[in-house]
Amino acid sequence: MLTVAVLISGTGSNLRALLEAASAADYPARIIVVGADREADGLAHAEAFGIPSFVVPWQGKERRAEWGSELADQLTVWNPDLIVLSGLMRLLPAAVVSRFAPNIINTHPAYLPEFPGAHGVRDAIEAQVSQTGASVIVVDEGVDSGPILAQERIAIVPGDDEHTLHERIKPVERRLLIDVVRDIANGAIDLAAHREPTPHS
């Protein structure tokens, strides 16, 4: 059984979907802990499902390394097989990524490498393109630049704004995330194949 830690910043809608999927007897992964960088609303989902949680408060960019170190220490206590970033609105410090890579994945509301960053939905609207998408990636030290595990196109329709488009993207993100976690658990996706080579000394 694959053990999963989920990190959030907000309402945790992806977390909720993953918790519901993981509650099924035939789903090959279990969420063992939920972490957040603030007292996020989504922590209520963990409580509802009886999942332990922790908060490592964000204390500003000048203390980013300390925050990352404390976050990594908390995760190490639980020793999850996989870490899922589910709306965590912080870029993990490189030291945290290297400590757990390649077993960190993230969802993104665009068809990467198109529209990376925190405003992928808005950027797609402003670019006046006809379609965007949703992606699940392996987290690396860049901004939404890791290997793509799954993605799907989503049309942008006349009259779409950032909110309406994002609301159509979210269900696809959730479905892709649930499928990817399942595939990692059953071996259909091998994250070790995405490990960065160790530099020679």
UniProtKB/TrEMBL annotation:
UniProt site positions, description: Raises pKa of active site His: 144
GO biological process: 'de novo' IMP biosynthetic process
Key word RNA-binding present: no
Catalytic activity, as annotated: N(1)-(5-phospho-beta-D-ribosyl)glycinamide + (6R)-10-formyltetrahydrofolate = N(2)-formyl-N(1)-(5-phospho-beta-D-ribosyl)glycinamide + (6S)-5,6,7,8-tetrahydrofolate + H(+)
GO MF term set: phosphoribosylglycinamide formyltransferase activity
Uppermost EC category: transferase
Pathway info: Purine metabolism; IMP biosynthesis via de novo pathway; N(2)-formyl-N(1)-(5-phospho-D-ribosyl)glycinamide from N(1)-(5-phospho-D-ribosyl)glycinamide (10-formyl THF route): step 1/1
A single GO cellular-component term on record: cytosol
Protein's UniProt keywords contain Transferase: yes
Residues the entry annotates as binding N(1)-(5-phospho-beta-D-ribosyl)glycinamide: 12-14
Pfam families: Formyl_trans_N (PF00551)
UniProt entry keywords in alphabetical sequence: Purine biosynthesis, Transferase
Gene3D superfamilies cross-referenced by the UniProt entry: Formyl transferase, N-terminal domain (3.40.50.170)
Classification via InterPro entries: Formyl_transf_N, Formyl_transf_N_sf, GART, GART_AS
Domain Formyl transferase N-terminal: from-to ranges: 4-181
Binding-site list for (6R)-10-formyltetrahydrofolate: 64, 89-92, 106
Enzyme nomenclature, EC number: 2.1.2.2
Stated family: Belongs to the GART family.
Primary role: Catalyzes the transfer of a formyl group from 10-formyltetrahydrofolate to 5-phospho-ribosyl-glycinamide (GAR), producing 5-phospho-ribosyl-N-formylglycinamide (FGAR) and tetrahydrofolate.
The name this protein goes by in its record: Phosphoribosylglycinamide formyltransferase
Species whose genome carries this gene: Microbacterium mitrae
Recorded name of the encoding gene: purN
